[in-house]
Amino acid sequence: MRRFLLSLLLLTVPLSAHAFCGFYVAKADTKIFNKASQVALVRNDDKTVLTMANDFKGDPKEFAIVVPVPTFITKEQIHVADKAILDHLDAYTAPRLVEYFDPNPCEIPRPMAMAAPAGSAMMMKDGAVERAKSLGVKIEAQYTVGEYDILILSAKESGGLETWLKENGYKIPDGAGPVLQSYINQNIKFFVAKVNLKEQNKLGFSYLRPLQVAFQSPKFMLPIRLGTVNADGPQELFIYALTKKGRVETTNYRTVKLPTGMDVPIFVKDEFADFYKSMFNTQVKKEDMRVLFTEYAWDMNWCDPCAADPLSDDELKQLGVFWLGDTSAPGGATRVMPPSRPVGGAKEVFVTRLHVRYDRDHFPEDLVFQETSDRENFQGRYVLRHAWTGGDKCEAAANYRRQLSDRHEKEAQTLASLTGWDVNDIRRKMKLSAKPDQTSSTDSDWYKKIWK
Fold first, then answer.
1. Most buried residue, 2, 185, 405, 408, by CB count within 10 Å?
2. What do you get for the CA distance between the two ends of the chain, in Å?
3. Contact call for residues 31 and 277 (beta carbons, < 8 A)
């Protein structure tokens, strides 16, 4: 039996990534923006732990911040935090670039769904879930553990489970059906894993260590007005809100989601930072710099694709996630760094990443927040699709080649729309021909070129 299980595990490795959310390639973290500050807001009931980091550069003697707080702060409520944890949180929540590789169309009996909607989790797209249900397959749970993304499945019958696995890029050995059915008859679940590409997170700018303050107040807000008094232009602010219930948004300004899920040209892989800055600049101008943008909203238990591993319980406790253990302190204050002890995963922690570019004219009020019950996953995610370049000949391959130029043109138009970049410059980088209706010519003998 053990030999079969090992064989089954080895043979069910995904053959390609197209059924999932793509292989992680790069992230757009806070380091690509100038004048960027980071704030982690841990909030539950009326308790808040605020962690603040600034991109101050220069002599530390020149550094000073003034932060209004809604209540008296004792010495015990102030702490100096570890910048590496904010860097980890930044990496985990950063907008990301992913890539797919088109399969050989001659080897696929029917087209696979290639589009991965914004914020979709590994096989948690609406269509995929409905497809699974139609086959009698239930996605019980999903996790990220080490270098693996894991699904826990149950099924009603082996035929549906085999079909689901094959449609999602898993190779099932002949004759496995009866064995799968014997497990299904025993109500046994199925552990399905795929490898996740890991990135090592490195420290970026030389920030001063973050300051951390814990307090109780019914006000869920962040003071920003003082920061605009002596500012020499707009500033970038990244807010990581960690809550129990769901996504966080502002009540006195609009909160909107960034465009996401678009296919962009392959060359963006080498220019992702420039792409993301241009895209964000375009969105800020479109909204007249009067909104906060949601870049990420996700259950801290897992991620897909992962720009970094989820934060550990110990890291979350150091940020002040006090509901992971007993953090009661004398006098009713919230202890910022409770004693570490093993707990079963990052339960009931939902993270929202907000990005705002602000100045005094466009943000005359401090930011006021509310926690919602919305736990729908969302991420800023942009997709590269590598074309199949094989020489196989079949009707599907011929159709694929005919559609490829239209797909590339659509990618060029999408990139131009997102960033404001010149579409003809984009086409040149993609080595595409200019469209006839977008070229001009005064050559009255144009037809002679055709007859040469």
1. 408
2. 72
3. no
CA atoms within 13 A on the CB side of 347: 7
Both tokens of 129, joined, read 């879930």
| pLDDT tens digits along 377-430 | 999 999 999 999 888 888 888 888 999 999 999 999 999 999 999 999 999 999
Highest mean pLDDT among 60-69, 121-130, 171-180, 191-200: 171-180
Structure tokens at 15: 């053959």
Q: Residue 211: phi, psi to the nearest 5?
A: -95, 145
- The full 3-state SS of 130-160, as one line of letters, equals HHHHHCCEEEEEEEEECCEEEEEEEECCHHH
CB atoms closer than 10 angstroms to residue 330: 7
User: What would the 3-class secondary structure string for 267-322 be?
Assistant: HHHHCHHHHHHHHHHHHHHHCCCCEEEEEEEEECCCCCCCCCCCCCHHHHHHHCCH
Question: For residue 181, what is the DSSP state?
Answer: H
Give CA separation, 283 vs 83, 90, 253, 271, in Å: 29, 21, 16, 18
Nearest Cα to Cα of residue 53 among 32, 84, 75, 92: 84
User: 333 by DSSP, 3-state: which?
Assistant: coil
DSSP character for 170?
B
Other Cβ atoms less than 10 A from the Cβ of 295: the count is: 24
